UniProtKB/TrEMBL annotation:
Alphabetized InterPro entries for the sequence: 6-hairpin_glycosidase_sf, Glyco_hydro_76, MUG_Protein, O_gly_hydro
Keyword Disulfide bond: no
Keyword Cell membrane tagged: no
This protein's name: Glycoside hydrolase family 76 protein
Pfam family, one: Glyco_hydro_76
Organism for this UniProt entry: Saccharothrix hoggarensis
Source taxon at top rank: Bacteria
Gene Ontology terms for molecular function: hydrolase activity
Lineage, uppermost ranks: Bacteria, Bacillati, Actinomycetota, Actinomycetes, Pseudonocardiales
Key words of the record: Hydrolase
């Protein structure tokens, strides 16, 4: 049996490791911080030549998780530095051409306002307006993945739906429901209950091709949106997603990995929203969601590599992490954030009195 609060301790160790390796000022400017996208950090990393907009949004989210786990003025100050760093490095404002990126930053900024009192109302308004404008009837509905593209996918629509549901006014709640309904109508695999990635459309709006890949990212954000909406029909959908993940995406209870780069975040995203479902879903599958989070976190921890600055996580949580040599995904900030997210998800359940069931 795991001793009390050990999961919080593991999350704290991951936090310190990521911050010590990756955090850097933006171009030496005081009051700023961003995560270098790879470690060991080379000169392009020190200068933030490569930005990783949505990785930074998840770094901000992880720091907010840590602040809830162990509140401190230093973490609250880091939240402010990260928000300023994102705005400075993005150069052109708060948004970019990718609707999924924009939605993730909106979610993190909304949390920063509600959890540490750092309000950026103009930024949130700009982000929400961009997402509202991304909906069209092409392919039956949904928000585009990218401006001026032909692709609509769950990775963009899921976080947008979560944000609209959390903003909470009547029109935005309607948008959140419309998004989830479109996902369910267009992108559910009838055999497994999992969500496909997305679909391409012709200029006339008809569907050209469906990308029938199963990503843990897609399941996580769809689950999160259903939990936020909260009515009985959406709770039933959430329960179906949990069961489908357990039966089809978890080998011996551990998620399959999606490599480095953007894929390094996918498992952590699913763990985050499984934890929310475990806490908020009034269905038997809530306990199943909690067990998945604990299994993921335990496997991740068991397979960590020990380096000078703390634990190092791999992209596949069922395999031992390797040294962060050039070309290996262990170098990527995304992979380390995905691991940190999973440990924070387990710590969240721990401090809410949830424990793994015997298995």
């Amino acid at each position: 049996m795991t001793t009390p609060k050990i999961r919080a301790a593991r999350a704290g160790v991951a936090e310190r490791a990521v911050e010590s390796r990756h955090l850097r000022r933006v171009w030496g400017l005081p009051g700023t911080a961003l995560g270098a996208v790879a470690w060991p950090v080379d000169w392009p990393g020190r200068l933030h030549v490569r930005f990783g907009y949505w990785w930074q949004a998840h770094l901000l989210d992880c720091v907010l998780d840590a602040q809830l786990r162990a509140p401190s003025p230093a973490r609250a100050a880091l939240v402010r530095r990260l928000v300023r760093g994102i705005r400075v490095r993005n150069l052109v404002g708060w948004v970019n051409d990718y609707y999924d990126d924009v939605a993730w930053l909106g979610l993190a900024l909304l949390r920063a306002e509600r959890e540490v009192g750092l309000a950026r109302p103009k930024a949130l308004a700009t982000i929400a307006d961009r997402l509202r404008g991304g909906w069209t009837d092409h392919g039956g509905g949904g928000i585009w993945w990218k401006r001026h593209d032909d692709f609509k996918n769950v990775p963009a629509n899921g976080p947008a739906a979560i944000l609209f549901a959390r903003l909470g006014d009547r029109a935005d709640l309607g948008r959140a429901r419309s998004i989830v309904d479109w996902i369910e109508d267009a992108l559910v695999d009838g055999e497994t209950g999992l969500l496909w990635d997305g679909l391409h459309v012709h200029p006339d709006g008809t569907v050209r091709e469906i990308e029938k890949n199963f990503y843990t990212y897609c399941q996580g954000v769809a689950l999160g949106a259903c939990v936020e909406l909260g009515s009985a029909a959406y709770r039933d959908k959430a329960a179906r997603i949990i069961t489908a993940v357990d039966e089809h995406l978890a080998a011996d209870g551990v998620l399959r990995g999606h490599g480095g780069g953007d894929g390094g975040l996918f498992g952590g995203i699913l763990a985050r929203y499984l934890a929310q479902a475990a806490l908020r879903l009034d269905r038997p599958e809530a306990a199943r969601a909690a067990d998945l989070v604990f299994r993921f976190a335990d496997a991740l921890w068991a397979n960590r590599a020990a380096v000078v600055s703390g634990p190092l996580f791999g992209p596949d949580w069922s395999e031992p992490a390797k040294e962060p040599r050039p070309g290996r995904p262990e170098r990527d900030l995304s992979v380390q954030l995905g691991g940190w997210m999973a440990l924070e998800a387990a710590a969240l359940l721990e401090r809410n009195g949830i424990t793994p069931t015997e298995r």
